[in-house]
Amino acid sequence: MKLVNILLAGNQEPELTALERLLGATTGNKVYRVTRCGTYPEAINAMLKSRFEAYLLYEKVQGYEGLDLLHEAIRSNCTEPIIFLGEHYNKETDETAMNLGAAAYFSIDSISGHVLDSCIRYAIKNSRSFSALKASEDKFRIIFERSKDPMFVTDISGKHYDVNDAALEYFETTRAEFLRANAASFYTDEYQRDRYVTEMERNGFVTGHEISLKLANGGLRYSSISSFLQISQHGSLKLYYVTLHDITALKARKAQPDGTVLLADQIRNPLTAVNLAVDEICAQLHGQPQDVKYYLSIVKENCDKINQLTKFR
């Protein structure tokens, strides 16, 4: 089994030695590999370079306050858990350490090996989960900011929380104006908005709904909207992550007559004139030679056939 690497930083030799032995006795020295560090520069260097999976930080390090070291490490984005240790319990130190970002606070004179072991394992697991979530959020942020499609974050009430540059360009507005506006105000059809929210609340996602949207300048665009719902860790906030695909040009093309239909119209109009002319000629040739009427009947018959072929609608 792979050992978990831990840095124990501090100068109180007897207390820290006892703590190290306590942890080893609890786990049988089969879980943790503990490295000792007694200087401030060594400790902060290890923390900033993520050399260990967790840090046990005593309240005094080479004459410096451990709280100062904790503050510098957290401020410099140390991502591994830091468990703060004091010789005796102090409520003020406890609150300060936790506010600074410590994973836990314990007093050496009262802690047990089992409690410390559980705390370290939980802190490492929680830190890894947070790091994975942060990495996922960073990837989404890159996609969000670089996407050519309009993307924004809103909620059921229509309040906006974030928007990318492509959406600002799409709606022809500024970031401040967009974030002030309610999402419902962009819809031209209230029913489309109600249907979208209903499906989001029922299924947690929407894919490919066609909607019409108003631009800031009063213009109109058609979009295919896709969204998914994200609930915050404590369930206090439900956010809609929205992506729009512009289909305005597609709708315009569909609204135009098909090229074949246009050609049929172009043929039918002169063809109708020919048919009328043939009918008039036949009427005026009443009693005239039959061969002329015969040829005209051929013209008439074939014009009728062409006329039938061009009736697309």
Automatic annotation (TrEMBL):
Residue stretches in coiled coil: none
Domain PAS per the UniProt entry, residue ranges: 136-179
Classification via InterPro entries: CheY-like_superfamily, PAS, PAS-like_dom_sf
PROSITE patterns: PAS
Pfam families: PAS_9
Protein name according to UniProt: PAS domain S-box protein
